[in-house]
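Illustration: Ketoreductase (KR) domain-containing protein.
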Amino acid sequence: MDDMTVLLNDGIKRGVVQPIERTVFQKNEAEDAFRYMTTGKHVGKVLIKIRDEERDKVTLNVNPMTVEATTRTWFHPSKVYIITGGLGGFGLELSYWMVLRGAKKLVLTSRTGVRSAYQQLYLKRFRKFGKLIEDYKIDITVSTVNATTEEGAHKLIDEASGIAPVG
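Result:
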């Protein structure tokens, strides 16, 4: 046993090393788990339990299990998609994922607008798509409309509708 393993085991025994906080959802609650993650209020890991843990170290009989899933998501290139909090870390990653799946028109909301080099890098990456892939121009609009009010939400939808039908 190496020194690190000894220290880790000792820390677990003394209660110094503790498991990370987690919230567990059942396999039929996957949508709830993703909604919970989007609130940003969770701490630690969000897990989806597919089946009970196997206590034996060697699995002798594996029971096949079918998990219902959508194989691929696609976005209509002629529609515009609104992403609230679109300049945050998750919003930028979501935008990039959507572009890789066909979205060409996005409205990213942020009350403060583009403020960091990280955000600028992502917007630059979107512009490069048009240069790398022929006829694949990405139209990104950054909106500072406050979508947390009913009036702001209507204004944001009107703004997006001026670009294309909202998807």
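Reading the tokens back as a structure: The beta strands are 22-26, 45-49, 80-83, 105-109, 139-143.
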